[in-house]
Structure prediction request, 341 residues.
Amino acid sequence: MPEAVTEDLQKGSSLGKVLKSESFSPADTGSGSLSAPLYVAWQTTNECNLACLHCIEESGPGKAFKDELSKEQTFDVLKQLADLQVPYLSLSGGEPMVHPHFWEMLEFCSKNGMLVKLETNGHFLTKDAAKRLKDLNVKAVQVSMDGGSRETFNKIRIHGDFDIMKEGIANLGEAGVGIEINYSPTKFNTHEIGMAVDLAHEMGAYSFYTGRTMYTGNAVKTWHLLVPTPEQYEQYFKTLHEKTKEYEGRMRVYFHEMGLLEELRYRIKNPAALFIVLPNGLVKLINALPFTCGDLRKDSVTKIWGNFQKAWKRPEVAKFIDDMATNDKLTAQLHNWVDLS
Ligand code: SF4
Prediction:
């Protein structure tokens, strides 16, 4: 469910929170001393039922990659992750619930004690699906809201339906599944952020995530329609500060006010123990860089983990981040993968 926000930092927050709840220290989330990633963020398919204006992938109906992992390859990777005792996995897409082996993947994770977070557009969360997610011990479901009103939501989420999304969240609540909400700011929805935070709380969410709009994927083509003005962002974050205080102790409001460059400057010194797995099995260093460090169709998770540690130290990575300081449109290249393995 990739959105046009600084998603990697969200995963960092999410990782810290989960590890904390599992008695790890968030300080241990760096990659240096570990023998495997702590968190695998798996974009299982590029296929999606929606075609959102702000999608940071190039997802949509009929957009599955031709070389997405087969069933055998998918379960081979899952088995390796289970053997390495990787504790936490998130499944996203595209829309992960349209993946042909979605439920079997969850069953495998549940049997092997892996905590799973699902990131979805919320259009397949029927009562039965929500109950099944609960039965399979899914730790949290993050649903994208992107509007406090039907009109705004349906404008940004092409083929999407605000009422179906809300009903999906209600079904999660009824089934007792943890709810998180994601919100991507655009020039026509920043004014509804307060409404959306209130709605998220009212519907039982325990976390609310947002950040800044990212110039990549489908969002490149629609940028002129999307990007909030500096004044809109200022008001947006002001409201978020207020909402953070208002909901303190009841719902966590996570937002990343700093831009992508600051995030990457931090990450190059402190790489998170996080693999981003693409639908075709390539593994990225972080979503906000074009670099890959292995291919799960032919390399083992252990081998790629070794590559990952070395790749972060490569001069190409530092140079790309430095270049972003003078060219903020470089993020348009994030899907032109550069192999550093
Ligand atoms: S729901 Fe929208 S943002 Fe998410 S993957 Fe599909 S098209 Fe992209």
User: Anything to note?
Assistant: The first strand starts at residue 39 and ends at 43.
